[in-house]
């Protein structure tokens, strides 16, 4: 039984998904970082090679026909060909030697997973956020994604930081009472919001730990808390603004469908609906599609298409 | 000729100002950090002792009657008495042994410098920001000052970060063109705003380096740039909101005068006026006083009062 592999490589881990030629899932595996800028091209290649070997071992007696790796940090043609060179070298002498290899960007596989197409707009809202668009001519455009200081509107970090600042403004009496306060105090096991200083400014606190507070906003908003709703709405509007601006700047992006990927879209209807309403043209909400699939599934789709285009060997 | 000394101790440096009993300035000197939490109580005491020795050497043949140290990080009665104990010990055996010593908070001396009183509200807007109020009964209240993540509205960091985010939003087409872009590119010697990533996320970038961009907003606002004006106005409004909320929460703060200290107040009329209008009651702008004096002058005033209350020895 032949199969293909889709890899979704990020800065801390890579997910591998194997599917057979009918698209049925054979399993998923997790390996080390696949973003060459988070580690190095050599390290990323080694990690991907190790993960592929794990998949091979788990599926004995089967033949892998193609691999597609969608990697964060691989944006330019040069980065793609460098990555391809490193990975080909890593796989030389392994069971994957000679297997068709396709290197994509993580946004491309997210788009494929969401829309089943290589054409469209993808809004990704995780710890950070970014918008990518790919037009019919294969051109790529971006908006946002400048990181936690320069701006990643609609991200978990953005929302989480707003939660913390809202709690302090409520503490100071600038904003009214909010259930966010109790939620934040409980999360950290503290009794007074002023104690947050000792938590947030502790050395080594990561962006992801700030982003964790987004979850509290999602829950409080669902429970009707006004300030939590405002945080979610503003954040989704800011993300939508990036899409609208990107479309205004480049003709040809106008009628493209928009995929929405990331847990905030999936877990917060208020966020998703606000985003949809703000990006939709002529009140046609069908332009936006919530991605129900993992990015690795998009990569696996590309690998399956590659195998099919070459005919079964 | 007798004199007294005022010390303004912060996290990185301490300023000493010596005045004679008529209030005439004899000189200023700079020493190491005086905030016991930025270093330790022992280190802060050593640094203050060293600075006082420098003043002594520079004013030979004169007698020091009193010292007042206004120190950041010395907020509670316990911290004050600990600091007093350490400093007294440090000065034992020195020329300052037996000289009257007064430990104050940095906000108290800023208030004294601005209003000439120990009663009032002081809004401090530097790299960070904070509001303190001292009522007629000697009670102390605060609002804001939670730091760059939790919130320091109206601070240089707040404004500087807004400058950077505004430039990126303008780059993405979410906001219109602004002269801030050219100002930021020039400051860093880069040609494209996307290159800011390589600057802002460089390891070791400090809050003060983000705050430096506030100056660009002040200049651009003065030149009429709409987005720069919005940044300044929003920031001043947010700071004023803290004052209004503090007053609403505590009776007795209503008719207190407000001192405004920090370079943004001094160098940006738009900021100062926006703040004044937003905190003023019944359109009486005379409640707000721009501090034209250094905090060390407030400490020196306290030292002079202390010397006077004890009579010339």
Topology diagram in text:
Two copies of one chain form a homodimer.
Chain A: E1 2-9, E2 14-20, E3 25-31, H1 41-58, E4 63-71, H2 77-91, E5 100-105, H3 106-115, E6 120-125, E7 129-134, E8 140-143, H4 147-150, H5 156-171, H6 179-188, H7 196-200, H8 207-211, H9 214-222, H10 226-249, E9 258-261, H11 263-267, H12 269-279, E10 288-290, H13 295-309
Parallel strand pairs in A: 1-4, 4-5, 6-9, 9-10
Antiparallel strand pairs in A: 1-2, 2-3, 6-7, 7-8
Helix pairs in contact in A: 1-2, 3-13, 5-9, 5-10, 9-10, 10-12
- Treating each run of at least 4 consecutive H or I residues as one helix, how many helices of chain A? 13
User: Average pLDDT across residues of chain A?
Assistant: 94
Given as residue ranges, the uncertain stretches of chain A (5+ residues, pLDDT < 50) are none
How large is the share of residues in beta strands of chain A?
Answer: 15-25%
Query: Largest interface, by Cβ-Cβ below 8 angstroms: which chains and how many residues each?
Result: A-B, 26 and 27 residues
Number of domains of chain A: 2
Decide which structural class fits the backbone of chain A.
alpha/beta
Net shape of chain A? globular
Reported by name, the CATH topology of the largest domain in chain A is Nucleotidyltransferase, domain 5
Question: Which CATH architecture of the largest domain in chain A would you pick?
Answer: 2-Layer Sandwich
Specify the biggest β-sheet of chain A: 5 strands, mixed
Task: Look at the structure and name the CATH superfamily of the largest domain in chain A.
Answer: ATPase, nucleotide binding domain
Please report the distance between the alpha carbons of the first and last residues of chain A. Answer: 12 Å
Number of strands of chain A: 10
SSE sequence of chain A, one letter per element? EEEHEHEHEEEHHHHHHHEHHEH
Q: What is the percent of helical residues of chain A?
A: 40-55%
Strand order of the largest sheet of chain A: 3-2-1-4-5
Instruction: Specify the oligomeric state.
Output: homodimer
Rg over C-alpha atoms of chain A, rounded to the nearest angstrom = 21 Å
CATH class of the largest domain in chain A: Alpha Beta
